[in-house]
Amino acid sequence: MVTRYVVPQENAAEFAEQARTALDALRARPGCRAAVVGRAADDPTLWTLTTRWESVGQYRRALSSYEVKLHAVPLMYRAVDEPTAFEELLAWDPRDGLVETEPARAADDR
User: Fold this and answer.
1) What is this structure's pTM?
2) Helix (H, G, I), strand (E, B) or coil at 45
3) Cα–Cα distance between 99 and 80 in angstroms, integer?
4) Are 19 and 59 in contact (CB under 8 A)?
5) Domain ranges of the chain
6) pLDDT digit string (tens) for 22-32?
């Protein structure tokens, strides 16, 4: 899941605290593999909240939990309106190396 935010510099400290609270709520849910708050190196008004999940189902269940609704969803309402959930199709890490995964979505028969 990747959500992007445009945050005026004068609101950066407040946003960072809200993002930390959201990250804590999300990372506590079953299936969360990683959670990162980031800011663009070339534009300090652009921020991201990125989480990695074992499955789309676990991500969706996390969004329905009380703690996430209370602490993360308010931040997510501030996100740029665009798709946020992405499948990992090709990934590399030092432990597993390069891993290619088939898309979980059914092919469009049209």
Assistant:
1) 0.84
2) coil
3) 30
4) no
5) 2-100
6) 999 999 999 99
